[in-house]
Amino acid sequence: MHWSHRSWRGVIDFDRQVPAHSALESLPNFPRLRRDSPSRQVVGQLPQTLLIQRVLPTNLDFMRPPADGRFAPPQRRRFATTDVSSLSTEGIKMGLKGSIQAAAKAAVLTDAADLQGLVSLSELLRQLASDATAEGSPEIAVRSNEAAELSDLIILRQVNDVDAAFRRVVEAIGACETASERADAPRREPPDPELLVAWIASCEGTIPDIEHLAVKAESQGFVGETAAEIRRRIHTLKGECGVLSLSQAQSVCHDLESLIDGAGQKFPVDAVLGVCDWMRALTLRLGQDAAADEPDTSAVRQILLAHLPPAVVAPIAAPIASAGTTAAAPTTSPLTDPFAGLSSIPEDQRVTMNLENADENVGDFALEAREHLANAENAVLSLEANPTDDELVNVVFRAFHTIKGVAGFLNLPRIVEVAHAAEFLLDKVRSHKIPLSAHVLELVLASSDLLGQLIGMLSGGEAPKERELRILVRRLEAACEGRALAAPGAPAARPMTKLQSDEAPTTDALASAPIAATKQTPTKTIATAKADQSVKVSTQRMDALVNLVGELVIAQLMVVQDPEVSTLHGQRVQRNLSHLGKIVRDLQETSMSLRMVTLKSTFQKMARLVRDVAAKAGKHIQLEVEGEDVELDRNVVEEIGDPLVHMIRNACDHGIEPSDERRKAGKNEIGTLRLRACHSGGSIVIEVEDDGRGLSRERILKKCLEKGLIEPTRNTNEIPDSEVFNYVFLPGFSTAEKVTDISGRGVGMDVVRRNIEALRGSVEIHSTTGKGSVFSMRLPLTMAIIDGMVVRVGQQRYIVPTLNIERSFRPTQEQLTMVLGKGELVRVRTGLLPIYRLQRIFNLNEGCEEITDGLLLILEIGKRRACVFVDEILGQQQVVIKNLGDTQPQIRGVSGGAILGDGLVALIVDVGGLLETAAGSTTQTQLI
User: Fewer CB within 10 Å, N side or C side of the chain?
Assistant: First the structure.
């Protein structure tokens, strides 16, 4: 089509008065405006002079005739004025999301001085409002309508600051984009039904109380105590909202806290009442649907903003532009230097937390947070083997989310900071916005470690370094954008590629990721509203209860064995004494059960240890766990952690071979470490078994000869394996050729034995060269009360645990025999057993000399059996274990003392130590 000056004059005739909007609509590529469009009406009010000066000059370049006298078709401008029609068409084709994108593009291509672009943008915003209304998105409809009206005011120049007004238009479009993303995202998980019902019920009293206090503050003028009380209640409400995953309510309460803090002498009563109204609407909505979205916060935030002084406007003004959206992602650092600014932090600067006014529930939080972290770590280890299990991702997410919410309630911002960054990353993973990669799992475990340190600070633990915390948060933020950042000074992080499923493992994938996997199928449980009710009691009070029950047991024995009482033969007296004994027994068993805990948390920590040690040693190790639900006395469980750590580190570092060595030996290149727990003979047996190279008998004997532990003239072939392997428990004993930062210094196994013996337990080693080793710990169920057999040797009485007694009998002369004139043996059904005399072991100058005049007790611990000679068995009774005190030296073969019914003390025999002492041909010279 050819253009002429005449045709151009037909478009806009300067000599004629034509409606301004007609002139604009006649321009090439100018968008058509609907007859009822407010923008058409606005443009119609513009003076023609303004149109000529501000609109037409920007469009006349394409109308100038070229040299050949012909007009070329109009060329597209770079502004939105020529692209808007296509954007509008694109929006119609794509629906609501397309309309938002079209408006966003137009906003980028327009500025406050481009009137034609503003008119087009206003039209797009009207279209967006119409689409939002049709699709049932009232929030987007309101936002886009407000932005369109503000655009019209900018066009008419009825605003004081045009640039600021245009920024508000852009912010409104951004809020529409965020609202659309939130609508596409999975719905918020409903909180625990029982917690939600309880919270709504509490709000029925809390909200009216806050309103009453606010009105009271208004009527009495500013009252510091009243304001402080309102702030405390708002703070509590904020924490509760965090626990219930009500992010917008938590944010509103936080903003109100900031408002109260900066209010000065003018208390913001309207703001407090506005928040109360919004919270009441929230509780009503959640009461009808626990998974419902939170109400729009734009109105309540405007109330808050109106009362804020300039110093605190910034923290609250930003959320208004995105009211009703979910919590924002952590701010990402510049791409050029993701760790910019961290170099100014001193290397030795530690994280600080103000705990002077810490809540009394901090201790309970620390305990529960450690459990959440343990569950999260166990789920992460399972995810490495099952990366497609979304439920495992949810388990990890919920753990960090709960920690963040409760920490916010307790005002622990540093814990909230780390937990929130990790939670946001996990939310991206579970919504499949970023892949679950090895780098992501590494960051989650690092976050768990750092949170563990921060939680440890609550009980006096060492604080982590500030720079390490900042670096981790930056790495988490980058991971949310799909970028894998390594820590400064560390090797470059692996790309964030998706983990492969276990269904098709490859050798290459295995070689590139030396990570331990826990061979364990997680149990999926469904929370119900009717949960078991429980009450938290401090461990000190629980221990005090157990001690009092122990004293009650002693008092009951004293009454029953009192000579004056024992002479009473009435049936009623005997019946009452028997009933008393039954009640005391039941009370004792119930109180002891309070101290019983499972090994689950301890075993879960070992899974993480295996993973880390395997990665550091460059090996491939899988951990198999059995018996994690076995229960033990809490005090015992707390003490076995260190022995287990030493044994597992040794098994991973020394026991299991590298992959190439295992392949040469015909083994699976993935080593297996088994951690088992089970009941055995009234005790608990914990085994650490590996399928590695086993202990080298020759190297142990060589080291013993070098250290002078074995006489050079002794025939080493006659030394049994059990004795040889026991040398590894000696202090400083190590056969490692190279010392590493994992093990090899010889300071671990002696600690293992010492700690286990302090628990009245024992440890044994069984090993086969080339096939592996088994370290077996035998531990008592409880450290407080045992069933024992009271025996007499001369005038002394001892208590032997009944769990270690197989049977007792009086031997005949035919059963007895002598070895080399020294060792006494007795023949029983299973063969010959050695006889040990308690009077000689404890250096007593009294008691029977002839074995046929006394009794033999067959004692058993583990796989060891022997007979102990005593004068007489006085009876069986339940005794309370008492420590001998710090002033008494530790006596091998004695685990403690007990008060008998007559008030005198009897020593409790440690069967394991007793048999080792006797078998080693040593006697205890300490006179009892």
Answer: N
Length of the chain: 928
Q: Are 565 and 581 in contact (CB under 8 A)?
A: no
Nearest one of 563, 523, 594, 561 to 785, comparing CA atoms: 594
411 neighbors 359 (Cβ within 8 angstroms): yes
For the segment 717-755, what is each residue's pLDDT rounded down to a tens digit?
Answer: 888 888 888 888 887 777 766 555 455 444 468 778 888
Domain 193-321 carries which CATH code?
A: 1.20.120.160
Sign of CA dihedral 376, 377, 379, 383: positive
Q: Model pTM?
A: 0.54
Helical segments of 191-327, H only: 193-219, 224-243, 247-261, 269-288, 298-307, 313-321
534: CB partners within 8 A, 6+ apart? none
Using pLDDT thresholds of 50, 70 and 90, give the confidence band for residue 245. Answer: confident
Mean predicted confidence (pLDDT) in 606-610? 81
CA dist 19 to 11, 13, 39, 121, 890, Å?
Answer: 12, 11, 14, 21, 108
Cα-based distances in Å from 853 to 795, 847, 874, 913: 16, 10, 15, 26
Averaged pLDDT for residues 420-431? 87
pLDDT at 58 over 60: no
CA dist 698 and 696 (Å) reads: 5
Q: What token pair was written down for 103? A: 């408006």
From CA 816, how far away is CA 833, in angstroms rounded? 10
What is the DSSP pairing of strand 831-837 with strand 864-870?
Answer: parallel
Q: How far is C-alpha 702 from the chain's CA centre?
A: 47
- Which residues have C-beta within 8 Å of that of residue 340, sequence separation ≥ 6? 333, 334
Q: Exposure of 879 by Cβ count < 10 A (0-12 exposed, 13-18 middle, 19+ buried)?
A: buried
* Contacts of 829 by beta carbon, 8 Å cutoff, 6+ apart: none
The fourth-level CATH superfamily of domain 360-487 is HPT domain (1.20.120.160)
Does the pLDDT of residue 809 top 60, yes or no? yes
Distances in Å between the Cα of 837 and the Cα atoms of 467, 656, 689, 762, 923 are 64, 43, 36, 21, 10
Contact 735, 724 (CB under 8 A): no
How far is 180 from 187, CA to CA, in rounded Å?
13
The tokens describing 371, both together, are 């459990």
| Predicted confidence (pLDDT) at residue 690 exceeds the cutoff of 90 | yes
Least confident of 335-344, 577-586, 793-802: 335-344
Return d(Cα 813, Cα 819) in angstroms, integer: 15
End-to-end CA distance of the chain: 121
Superfamily of domain 785-919: SH3 Domains (2.30.30.40)
Which pLDDT value is given to residue 495?
Answer: 52
pLDDT in tens, 910-922: 887 788 777 664 3
| CATH numeric code, 597-780 | 3.30.565.10
Residue 767 three-state SS: strand
d(CA 456, CA 913): 36
- The CA–CA distances, whole Å, from 870 to 208, 222, 504, 801, 830 equal 76, 84, 64, 14, 21
Mean pLDDT for all residues in the chain? 75
